[in-house]
Design goal:
The structure holds two protein chains of two kinds. Chain A contains 16 helices and five strands. By secondary structure, chain A is an alpha/beta fold. In chain A, α15 runs antiparallel to α16. Chain B is of the alpha/beta class. Helices cover 66% and strands 7% of the residues of chain B. Chain B is built from 15 helices and five strands. Chain B has two domains: 240 residues, no CATH class; 141 residues, abc type-2 transporter like fold. The chains are: A alpha/beta, B alpha/beta. β4 of chain A pairs parallel with β5 of chain B, so a sheet runs across the interface.
């Protein structure tokens, strides 16, 4: 009973504090929204275009605009467009000279600019594809005139009517291998999972300040002076941290489910994962709360460890991406409990598995929790009875 | 002014003895920047190399030309002959599968069907197959683009001949060679753009540094409210010291701590993480300007609080919110839309943009960012002085 009283005080203290209201409830949802908006949507590459409004130039731009993977943004001056490319606000830029239509009978060069290799390859090939269509007709006309058999206008109209009759090489593209698994699922799903894991752990670590306050204010010592065994205080404080983590986790899960329609998969599996990961976070918080002597230090280190372990564990760059591009980092990620939890979420949500499939992950997380709580108990007992 | 410096000096000495200033100002941002750059750096690999397989079921002249001249001319690409299409598919798939141990993986493959050369030379339809995988999307894109440009070239020559014949020309011995040699009127040339972006490591480092400078400034600014709580402010007020000296002293403390934190971070990340902040003069100007804005904003926010605990809360919320929208964590200015517009209201975005502009190599490029940062600091500073006056007017 006294255990629950101590835990209850901790949870209530957090719920009433305005700053924790922001960090525990508002911030995670804002981040899920932003991450969904920034990374979740289908991203069209942005191509800046400076072009005269003449017929040939216009049809070239229209052809590029037809490409669904590209968003064409018009610019009035080359200078503004290049600046946007340099700042990364555009993936690439295309400049069509003002005298494009007149010069196309003879020779004309378009200017293409990109600063990133990937964009360079993708967008450039779209531009060249569009140019190739016009080139074929113009080249046929020019060649015919050069051979001296026709006037330019006549040759141009012949080329246009012959064009549909040309049979050439049909390029067939086929794809093998699995698509990225992180492209499956809703726009906000991945962001919601990683923010849930990141924030439960981060909040627990920064909230360890409360334990330090209890110690420095002498609350813990006063509790010890009452007929309350050490064990009860330890369990109560741990349950308090655990309660905060579970409340926050439930709020993020329900909030993102209701507001953004995030899919959380099998409720039993997700629930068990939440409970066990909260236990890990509570254990880490108890260790932090026992080690540090003042609140400012604990919150600084808490932010560092909370964000740092989150980043390592795949909360900022998805584990699947690390697996593909940085296998070493992928291995290192599994030092953190975050990676094991995120992997379990991937099983539950993306692969639609149940509780059984994530049992190994839950087991590893439980081992983390037990180890952390054991260390915390030893440290806290030492620090409380030393004075 | 002497009194202000005296107060600032005392505060600074006190802060330097407290370990938390080092944690917030140096260790936390440095540690996070290091972790972030380890995580994000492997993803920004910028050189293109690939191995393409070719299944040549044709063996004719045009097929050889495609393999030797077109594919052979690609830089960074190794061409491997593959016996069968099934083999090519298996090897592309193996390369895309992280669990596979295959060492003979292919990034993409081409399949040239039998009769390809005859069809091309006779102007008949044929196909060219490209096998790619989503895991190697860049390679697949390159392979596809190469195949398409070859197909475009073949079609163009075809159309030249057809137009020539339709216009009354008769095909001679050298007509085909002349058609192939005739240049395309429109070409796509590259023009070089400088860069106004920071590399991945520097982006992470700068983002973390500017986020934590707000927390450092917060510690300095909060000193005023703490002194009010502890009663030492009353003692200062009865001393022969101007009220403005007290405010100025606290502002100087916050400013010096902020500049010191950014300076230590700039030097240490350059040495330890290989970050490139840019021209030291430009960096110094931007650091001085952004710290001014940070102190101003933190002072305004604490002006709205009644107790030092409230101020602590408010400033932390504002510092985090500005960091998120300003691009400390992800490049919001490059995303576009509403978020990118909101980011223009944060000093973080201007500081990051200023350093990006500095990377263009011209010192004058940082003038707009610097002016905006100074303006933010000035406006915030005036509001802060007005609202914090009641703390010392008692």
């Amino acid at each position: 009973m006294r255990v629950l009283a101590i835990a209850g005080v901790n949870v209530r203290r957090m719920l009433r504090d305005r700053s924790s209201f922001f960090f525990v409830f508002v911030l995670p949802l804002v981040l899920v929204l932003m991450l969904g908006a920034v990374f979740g949507g289908a991203t069209a590459s942005r191509l800046g275009v400076v072009a005269p409004s003449t017929s040939l130039a216009g049809s070239l731009v229209a052809q590029i605009e037809n490409e669904p993977s590209i968003e064409v943004i018009r610019y009035d001056s080359e200078k503004a467009m290049v600046l946007a490319v340099e700042r990364g606000e555009l993936e690439a830029g295309l400049e069509i000279p003002a005298n494009f239509d007149e010069m196309s009978q003879d020779k004309v060069e378009l200017g293409f600019v990109a600063t990133n290799l990937q964009e360079q390859i993708e967008l450039r090939s779209v531009v060249e594809e569009a140019v190739a269509g016009q080139n074929a007709v113009l080249r046929a006309a020019g060649f015919t005139v050069e051979q001296g058999v026709s006037t330019y206008d006549q040759a141009l109209s012949n080329a246009q009517s012959e064009r549909s009759k040309v049979e050439g090489i049909d390029v067939v593209t086929s794809s093998v291998g699995k698509p990225y698994s992180f492209t499956l699922g809703g726009q906000f799903d991945l962001g919601a999972q990683s923010q849930l894991v990141l924030f439960i752990f981060l909040t627990s670590l920064t909230a360890s300040a409360a334990l330090i306050e209890s110690r420095t204010l002498g609350v813990s010592l006063r509790m010890l002076a009452t007929p309350t065994p050490m064990r009860t205080i330890l369990v109560g404080e741990t349950l308090g941290r655990f309660g905060v983590a579970v409340v926050q986790g439930l709020f993020i899960i329900l909030g993102t489910w209701i507001i953004f329609g995030v899919n959380w998969g099998n409720p039993v599996a997700t629930g068990s994962l939440l409970v066990i990961f909260s236990l890990v976070s509570a254990g880490a918080a108890m260790v932090m709360g026992s080690v540090f002597r003042n609140v400012a230090q604990a919150s600084g280190v808490g932010v560092l460890l909370g964000l740092g372990l989150g980043a390592l564990g795949g909360c900022m760059v998805p584990l699947q991406v690390l697996e593909l591009f940085a296998p070493t980092m992928y291995t290192v990620a599994h030092i953190t409990p975050h990676a094991w939890a995120l992997q379990a979420f991937a099983e539950i949500v993306q692969s639609q598995e149940g509780l059984v499939a994530i049992l190994p992950n839950l087991g590893i997380l439980l081992a983390y929790a037990v180890a952390l709580l054991a260390i915390a108990t030893w440290l806290l007992r030492r620090s409380l009875t030393r004075a | 002014m002497r009194n202000a410096l005296l107060i600032a000096g005392k505060d600074l000495r006190r802060r330097l003895r407290d370990r938390s200033a080092y944690i917030v100002g140096i260790i936390a941002p440095l540690g996070l920047a290091a972790i972030f750059s380890f995580v994000f750096n492997p993803l920004s690999n910028a050189t293109f190399t690939a191995t393409f397989g070719v299944v040549d079921n044709d063996g004719g002249q045009i097929a050889r030309m495609f393999v030797d001249q077109v594919l052979g001319g690609l830089s960074g690409v190794t061409i491997v002959d593959v016996a069968t299409e099934a083999d090519a598919r298996a090897r592309v798939e193996a390369d895309a599968d992280p669990a596979s141990n295959a060492t003979n993986g292919l990034d993409a493959a081409f399949v040239i069907p039998a009769g390809f050369s005859d069809a091309v030379q006779g102007g008949a339809a044929t196909t060219l197959e490209v096998i790619g995988s989503p895991a190697n999307s860049t390679s697949a894109g390159v392979a596809d683009a190469v195949a398409r440009s070859f197909a475009d070239e073949v079609s163009a020559v075809n159309l030249e001949i057809r137009t020539y014949v339709a216009s009354g020309g008769s095909i001679g011995a050298d007509t085909l060679a002349a058609a192939v040699a005739y240049p395309s009127p429109i070409s796509v040339g590259d023009f070089a753009a400088g860069t106004r972006r920071l590399d991945t490591t520097t982006t992470m480092v700068v983002g973390m540094a500017v986020m934590f400078v707000f927390f450092v400034a917060q510690q300095g600014v909060l000193g005023l409210l703490e002194e009010g709580r502890d009663g030492t402010l009353d003692r200062l007020l009865v001393a022969p010291i101007g009220k403005w000296s007290i405010l100025a002293g606290k502002a100087i403390t916050a400013y010096v701590m902020g500049v010191a934190s950014l300076t230590v971070l700039a030097v240490s990340t350059t040495l330890l993480l290989g970050a490139h902040w840019g021209d030291p003069v430009g960096v110094a100007i931007l650091v001085l300007a952004v710290t001014f804005a940070a102190v101003g904003i933190m002072a305004v926010v604490s002006g709205f609080a009644r107790t030092d605990e409230q101020a602590n809360t408010y400033t932390a919320i504002v510092a985090i919110a500005l960091a998120i929208f300003g691009g400390s964590f992800f490049p919001v200015s490059q995303v576009g839309g509403v978020v990118a517009m909101l980011s223009k209201f944060t000093p973080h975005a201007w500081f990051i943009q200023g350093l990006g502009d500095l990377a263009s190599g011209r010192l004058t490029a940082i003038i707009p960012s610097t002016l905006v940062l100074l303006a933010i600091g000035l406006v915030a500073g005036v509001v802060a002085v007005l609202s914090l006056r009641r703390v010392v007017d008692r």
